[in-house]
Amino acid sequence: MQDRYLHEGETLLCSRRSSPAVLILVLLWALFETVVAGAILSILLAAGLYFGLGTTIEWWMVSGVFVICLGVAVFQHVHIWREATFRVTTERILLANPVAFFHAPLATVKWPQYQECEVDHRHFLDIFFLARPIRIRYGTADARSEGKFPSLRYAEDIKHYLDKVDAAVRKGETATLKPFIARPRGQRDVLES
Predict the structure, then answer these.
(1) What band does 99 get if pLDDT is binned at 50, 70 and 90?
(2) What 3-state DSSP class applies to 166?
(3) CA-to-CA distance for 78 and 104, rounded, in angstroms?
């Protein structure tokens, strides 16, 4: 399957999704959004019913508002989490960060802009999924920027892989690069059947 973000002649070397730790965190955030949005909408509905029709709000109306808010928030966050990916190609690094509500913003780091990569400290949930956040510094010496991808499995191995790809791109040896294999060390040379 051809990736819709790839240019012609560009080779995909690595494509990873964020770990389920991010999904758990965004679902917890969806609960918070549900409480806030549900409370505001319930108050507006109660005021509208009281001043417009002269009646009070029923409990089933309030629960309906909260259920609708929860459904919308969960659907949106799961959809964004599923679309968010960390991709490495022969031309660039694509970071679609899964923490926004309306879309996963896509950051592009071209290899001439790439400076360095580091692995951040684990969060509590990352421990259970053997994941860590990864941070990429890019830009010029005067204007440095950072891209971050939360909770990525094999983050330390990917960090070393990025250094390997960067060296190959600088030497013009991108044809010799092999794709990143998401397996524990010592099992990466075994081909999948």
Answers:
(1) low
(2) helix
(3) 11
Query: CA–CA separation, 95 vs 108, rounded Å?
Result: 6
Say what the pLDDT of residue 61 is.
84
Exposed e or buried b per residue across 109-128, where buried means at least 16 C-beta atoms within 10 angstroms of its C-beta: bebebbeebebbebeebbee
CA atoms within 13 A on the CB side of 173: 9
3-state helix, strand, coil in the chain (%, to 5): 45, 25, 35
Q: Which of 104, 82, 93 lies closest to 147 in space, CA to CA?
A: 93
CA 125 to chain CA mean position, Å: 15
- Nearest Cα residue to 57 out of 41, 76, 80: 41
Give all strands (DSSP E) within 45-177, no chain letters.
Answer: 85-89, 92-96, 106-110, 114-119, 131-139, 144-153
pTM: 0.73
Confidence of residue 193 (pLDDT cuts 50, 70, 90): very low
Rg (CA), the chain: 22
User: 19-41 in b/e burial notation, b at 16+ Cβ within 10 A?
Assistant: bbbbbebbeeebeebbeebbeee
**Residue 157: helix, strand or coil by DSSP?**
helix
Residues 184/161/115/137 CA torsion (nearest 10 deg): -30
